[in-house]
Amino acid sequence: MTDTNAVRIIIKEMGLKYSFIADKIGITPYSLQLKLDNKREFTVTQVAKLCGLLHISSLKRRQELFFKEKVD
Question: In terms of CB atoms within 10 Å, which of 29, 32, 50, 66 comes out highest?
Fold first, then answer.
């Protein structure tokens, strides 16, 4: 599961627009919304691209943000 709150905070802090992010990872803004809300899953490729945009290089941090078993 995606840690939605943490990812949204990072996006906000970086000043990125959801439409820009969606375009860069190859999905629609609506699809991005569904994935951030854990209604659909990100692919590994999408996670890699998103982490690149958000400057997340640590494997541990990627796992914390995108591959949690349960989000608090």
Answer: 50
